[in-house]
Amino acid sequence: MSLILPKLIHGKQTEITPQDQHALAAWSVLTVLLLQHTHNRVTRLVIPASDYADFYAAKSPTALMKVVAAYVEPPGWGTSVEAAVEYLAEERGMADVARLLESDGLAAPVDMRAYTATLRLGFWVVHVMRFGSAEFIERLNPGSPLVRYLQPIWPTQSAHAWPPGSLAEIGGMMALARSIDAGVAIA
Prior knowledge:
Strand content: 15-25%
Number of helices: 7
Number of strands: 9
Structural class: alpha+beta
Number of domains: 1
Shape: globular
Helix content: 25-40%
Order of helices and strands: HEHHEEHEEHEEEHHE
Radius of gyration: 16 Å
Largest sheet: 5 strands, antiparallel
């Protein structure tokens, strides 16, 4: 991963192999876990303590997570602002998810904690989705029009060319951060 992340951050064309995807997903989740403690929070922390223990044990994202990568031109492209980091983590409700699972005859969530976290470094954006149900997260897929702008990196997929379409075409990072509110497709 040490060779691919700088290419992604600088918006360079490359191929992301399954091994790269695993390393990028693990690094991304670890970074999101740590960033929760670097940002001043008026409200309580959104990432449950169990995620830290689960990540430490597995050294990778868990079955309750899906991680996607995206591409967007950074604000201030071509200036020192380009190097800035953006981060947002938000708590998500599990009540609607639990009702969906029940109506589909699936097992109840293992816990009622859920969050999304979005991180941008240069041109590279990563979006971590964590819901308290492995069945739900497995069926969670980006809906149209997001699908052409996102590349799954966890669970790992076959190799794919980078970059995908630019999120700027559909509203930038907020389109990604709000994708769960707009309703993602459940396969």
